[in-house]
Amino acid sequence: MSESKDLSRRTVLGRAAALGALAVPGAALLDACATGGGGGGGSEKGTVTKDNPLGIKEDAALEVVIFKGGYGDKYALDAEAAFKKKHPKATVKHNSTQQITQQLAPRFVGSNPPDLIDNSGAQALDMNALIGKGQVADLTPLLDAPSLDDPSKKIRDTLRPGIVEAGQYGGKEVYALNYVQAVFGIWYSSTQLTKYGIQPPQTWQAMLDACATLKKNNVAGWTYAGKYPGYVHYWLFAQIAKVGGKEVLIAIDNLEPNAWKHPAVKAALEPIEEVVAKGYVLQGSEGLTHIESQTAWNQGKAAFIPNGSWVENEAKGTTPANFGMAVQGPPSVSAADKMPFGTIWSAPTEPFIVPKQAMNSLGGMEMLRVFLAKPQAQNFARQVSSLTCVLEGAEGVPLPPGVTSANAALKAAGANNTVNPLILTWYAKLVQDIGQNCGLLMSKRISAADWITKTQALADAVASNSSIKKFKH
């Protein structure tokens, strides 16, 4: 697989924001949407019935665009086939791409966007710009529609906690339906840790001790994707919340003055600064892509890697048998931490949107209703070893060790000890820039104190920029 395809694997939640890539291409085109032509705008409409609660026009054409990254697009083709079975008069046009913005931004300008978009990858459309220009439909009618599995339940009642809120962007309207439930944290091989007599470290002292033991055996403690250093976020945000409580992340999301200067941020950064200072990071990690760092980890060159639950499917080509892939949340810094060990960052990813000017926006929502039926959620879990946003979507599906571990961590944390920083979806470019600071920290070019100063300056610049739409909890 080429590096460009590997990079495109990322979803907009963290995988676009945390990659530390360039600003989202096509933003200027999206800005032109406000003055684009007046075509589209309004949906083909049919008759509302018990079997057609959204009132779609049964013979209307429907166009779906899927981001074809690490999840592929077969799951979408299968859902489209199920849609066709339910609505045999409809015609469905399927497109898949890794260049979402390049292909679709001009269509928003021309007021002829497709009806359903999987807005994911490093080249995802800028949601801040789309929402600011009124280009995305409110999905509330979909959420209030009956589930295909149990018509007595609304779609919203079949989803995991936090899914609806993740698509709201600070208001009541729901602009995105995130299809995948990702778990972020510190990943390791249980087989490797057992080999060296190491227990998964629940404190940072235990982490440092583990790294010292590994170093004696010519194994690095950590590796990371140096070329896309925002991967460090997948541990850091949960660490900040664990130390200082969820309110610190809320202040960061809200761009509050000096939010990044909260003592919890410094306390969260200092342990990894010590890991770096003691030489516990795999030499050369600074120059590795996410695929290369995952491969080095799979080869046993390093024990711990910050990553998300897609890693098992993405790295399966280089993962040895009996690797025992597993994930944990951040270790405890001290007894004064506000949240317990087991605090985990879990967030909805892979956002699907329905453009407001789509010719068949109701059809786009009906297609999503099919995606959210249990057979399609189970099909997704079976194909790509990942959890969907459907609460019971993985029931009856055998899952590999990494996803089993992620699911167990999610259940153990519960709603109280699960965190989800929204800054990554609200201000993707800001988080890309913060990712660059993470790279500087991991390569010993700046200190934790310098990181905080630089990051606060980036957040202040966004907060004072009136051209950027702001969201609040």
Can you walk through the features of this model?
With 473 residues, the chain is an alpha/beta fold. It folds into two domains: 3-182 and 350-404, Periplasmic binding protein-like II (D-Maltodextrin-Binding Protein, domain 2), CATH 3.40.190; 184-346 and 423-463, 3-Layer(aba) Sandwich (D-Maltodextrin-Binding Protein, domain 2). It contains 21 helices and nine strands. It has helices spanning 3-7, 12-16, 27-31, 74-86, 100-109, 127-132, 140-143, 163-166, 190-195, 204-216, 233-244, 246-253, 263-277, 290-298, 311-314, 361-371, 374-384, 401-413, 423-426, 428-442, 448-463; strands at 61-67, 91-97, 116-118, 177-189, 220-222, 302-308, 325-328, 344-353, 418-419. Strands 1, 2, 3, 4, 5, 6, 7, 8 and 9 form a nine-stranded mixed β-sheet that branches. Helix 4 (74-86) links the parallel strand 1 and strand 2 (91-97). Helix 4 (74-86) packs antiparallel against helix 17 and helix 11 crosses helix 13. The longest helix has 16 residues, at 448-463. Its main location: other. This is N-acetylglucosamine/diacetylchitobiose ABC transporter substrate-binding protein. Pfam families: SBP_bac_1.
Features:
single chain, 473 residues, alpha/beta, D-Maltodextrin-Binding Protein, domain 2, 2 domains, nine-stranded mixed β-sheet, 40% helix, disordered N terminus
Oligomer: single chain
Q: Which structural class fits the helix and strand makeup?
A: alpha/beta
Distance between the amino and carboxyl termini: 40 Å
Main sheet makeup: 9 strands, mixed
Instruction: Write down the overall geometry.
Output: globular
Number of strands: 9
Treating each run of at least 4 consecutive H or I residues as one helix, how many helices? 21
CATH class of the largest domain: Alpha Beta
Q: By CATH's scheme, which homologous superfamily of the largest domain applies?
A: Periplasmic binding protein-like II
Keywords: Signal, Transport
Family: Belongs to the bacterial solute-binding protein 1 family.
Subcellular location: Cell envelope
Protein name: N-acetylglucosamine/diacetylchitobiose ABC transporter substrate-binding protein
